Amino acid sequence: MSATEIDEINAELPHYEDKSAVSIEALKIVQKHRGWVSDDSLTAIAEYLKISPAQLEGVATFYNLIYRRPVGNTVIHVCDSVSCWMLGGDRLRDKLCRHLNVKLGETSQDGEYTVLPIVCLGACDRAPVAMVNGELRPDLTDNIVQELLGE
């Protein structure tokens, strides 16, 4: 880990009773700097927090917003909840994937876009919904999908 990453993790430590509770924040900090959390980074974080890599891997793979492999510059999480599905989310997701020539979970050939499923974004009243680089995009339509793609 870099000195900056360690400093940021250390800044989180006083907010928690023990080091292991900082796991999610530490993963997010490393991901912020590197774009994703590699096996080597995960091992370094685990050693620093004095927890097992397996325990940290369990945390990392439980949370959809921790990336365990490289992602594109733009990460699009497409909600696959029942509400989004009922209101055409699958059709919009398929359109997005077709346009980018990717399958769900893949990154476009130019490395710009990654399209990932997510269980629920908590905006069922505004379905279908996606999250683009952390920004919620409710009420998706064909026009908004085209806008996301820069068309």
Describe, in plain words, how this protein is organized in 3D.
The protein has 151 residues and is α+β, with helices and mostly antiparallel strands. It contains seven helices and four strands, in the order ααααβααβββα. It has a four-stranded mixed sheet with strand order 2-1-3-4, covered by helices on one side. Helix 1 runs antiparallel to helix 2, helix 2 packs antiparallel against helix 3 (39-49) and helix 3 packs across helix 4 (53-62). The model has no long low-confidence stretch (mean pLDDT 93).
Structure characteristics:
single chain; 151 residues; alpha+beta; 4-stranded mixed β-sheet; 7 helices; 12% strand; elongated
Can you summarize this structure?
The protein has 151 residues and is α+β, with helices and mostly antiparallel strands. The chain is built from 7 helices and 4 strands.
